[in-house]
Amino acid sequence: MQLTSFVAAALAFCPVVFGANFLVMVGANNGFTFTPNEIHPNVGDTVTFQFLTRNHSATTTTFTSPCPPPPGGVGPNGFDTGFQPATTGSTPSVTVTIQDTQPHWVSCMQAAGAHCRTGMTLAINPTAQMTEAQFMANAIAS
Ligand SMILES: *[C@@H]1O[C@H](CO)[C@@H](O)[C@H](O)[C@H]1NC(C)=O
Q1: Could you tell me the distance, in angstroms and rounded to a whole number, from the CA of residue 85 to the centre of ligand 1?
Q2: Which of ligand 1's atoms lies nearest the C-alpha of 55?
Q3: How far apart are CA 109 and CA 100, in angstroms?
């Protein structure tokens, strides 16, 4: 094998250096949704939030009392994209890097939790006990 193809092959299978990217669409079809609403990234992977409609955020919150997510997001290793309006003809995107494999619970800060309470939720690394379905139910009930 030539050195260049060996290096290319080594890099291609080296997830610590080059993580996978997960694309999550926010507000597709004008809905109060993250699509997909459940992802399972590893440490070093990235998540790109693409904001398609309205004026949303992707902000980490708590599993049990999700709405509204607090500015800055709930940590450790939480995040907050801030408000990203897709109302002026652009579809902004924000990429975050995953720092651990703990569950992270994501919703939208807009309208004092009104978007969140529609069930607008994304589960990052949910578990068998703490599921996206239960997180969404908690958001709707909060
Ligand atoms: C987006 O929402 C935030 C929070 O409600 C607001 O402060 C901001 O003005 C909005 N941006 C646009 C362009 O509507």
Answers
A1: 7
A2: 1
A3: 23
Q: Is the CB of residue 110 below 6 angstroms from any atom belonging to ligand 1?
A: yes
pTM above 0.90, yes or no: no
User: For the segment 80-103, what is each residue's pLDDT rounded down to a tens digit?
Assistant: 999 999 988 899 999 999 999 999
Pocket probe for ligand 1: among 26, 54, 55, 80, the residue whose CB has the most ligand atoms within 8 Å is 55
Q: Return the structure tokens found at 101.
A: 């494999």
Q: Taking the domains of the chain in order of start, what are their residue ranges? A: 18-141
**Residue 40 confidence class, pLDDT cut points 50, 70, 90:** very high
**Confidence at residue 122, expressed as pLDDT on a 0 to 100 scale:** 99
* Mean pLDDT estimate for the chain: 92
Architecture of domain 18-141: Sandwich (2.60)
With a 6 Å cutoff on the Cβ, whether 85 touches ligand 1 is: yes
| 55 CA from centroid of ligand 1 (Å) | 7
